[in-house]
Amino acid sequence: MTIYLNGASLDFVQIDKIINHHELVAIDQKAIQQIMSSRQTVERHILAGDVIYGINTGFGKFSDQLISNRNIETLQVHLLRSHACAVGEAFSDRVVRLMLLLRANALAKGYSGVRPDIIQALIDCLNKGVIPVVPSQGSLGASGDLAPLAHLALVLIGEGEAVYKGKKLSGADALSAAGLSPIQLKAKEGLALINGTQAMTATGCAAFMDMTRLMVAANRTAALTFEALRGVEEAFWDESHQVRVFPEQIQAAQTMMGYLKGSKLTTHQGDLRVQDAYSLRCIPQVHGAIQRVMNRVQEDLLIEINAATDNPLIFAQSGHVISGGNFHGEPIAFAMDFLGIAAAELATISERRIERMVNPQLNNGLPAFLSAEPGLQSGFMITQYVAASLVSENKVLAHPSSVDSIPSSANQEDHVSMGTTAARKAVQIIGNTRRVVAIEALCAAQAADFHGSEFLAKETHAFYQEIRSLVPFVVQDKSLSASIEKLAEAI
């Protein structure tokens, strides 16, 4: 099956098929006319001798520097070479493939003034498995993700570096190995390739998809922990959630009740206690609020992946060429900061449940630190330390990037979003949180064994069996690092 790009209808279902299941991509033929009309508008302005930013002028502070027609194409190549100075660890193959996809989709919208050949070049790399090497540090998140996208674009002209079938090659060699040829840039096309938000948005999409899977695991883990601690189930009854109205909170409570249906370990008010600690009682309120953030982040990402984010924008119908600021990453910077904060909170409440399971003063009769021989063996004592360390690290990482700005280009670009930094931090936080949830799942399964797994609800027992298929009951002290990582990977 081929997925067709038109710059308006790409969604996460399609993204999953393309990125995770390697569906092929093509330009929607209905979009070609708009793309061509936009390109023809650029060429008419060049013939008329009009001065237009990025077409026959320099860039940034050099925007008032006029470029002669004979140097217009050279200008585009110089742009890519000079801007490709990002540093640090390379983005993952998945994120780079997302960059190729999202930049192609943005250009297919038909307001960037490029030829279809440029879009096809991006699609060819995606379909053929040519993955540009893109360092992850160096974007300010305004004027687009200039440095990362320049590394991406260099490969299209046969420069830079790319990975093909697991081998790092020069851009030219990677294209050749895949049966592709370098493209020749025309006016505006180099700028159109790099003046967008696709590094931050691609990173954000990957983070969001990871967080979506993590939320499912976190809900299942919380339900198993709830049984391990003999939770009071009235806290999840529908009546109290309906009167607060938040739909995500209502859904979270219903999800918990669904997971716990038939449990012989949950309790009622007055059986063992009247009410639980907040980390149990408030699961719907906290997990629901996190889901609400995710819904908003998804909405913002869907808008951005179908947006025209370069500069200038070419409007064929009116003939206008508008130099504006759609490359500014503020919406995605806010979304990624918010996603990072939400993920950090998911880890924070998870760690508190871990503490309750291992602490003999809080765990309702479970062995101290879930140890088979308390005292002689330390059991899960230090897993809580690890979770606490990850939670503390998340608190540092959750400081919003979007409140920062550093002027650039001789103060011409005097306010920036730091959106790519926000997205990269969100990825780190989600990775930490995945390990915290894995530790909680490890502890909850151990606690379930002490209670008797046969008393679990049907749904939580199925989850317990998934955990046990990966890690066994801990009879004797051993290093748990591999078990934690194995569960985190499964999550």
UniProtKB/TrEMBL annotation:
- Where does the UniProt annotation locate this protein? Cytoplasm
The encoding gene is hutH
Which organism was this protein described from?
Sporolactobacillus nakayamae
In alphabetical order, the GO MF annotations are: histidine ammonia-lyase activity
Any one of the GO CC terms? cytoplasm
User: Where, if anywhere, are coiled coils annotated?
Assistant: none
The answer to whether keyword Transmembrane helix applies is: no
The record lists the lineage as:
Bacteria, Bacillati, Bacillota, Bacilli, Bacillales
Q: What is this protein called?
A: Histidine ammonia-lyase
**Covalent crosslink: 5-imidazolinone (Ala-Gly):** A142-G144
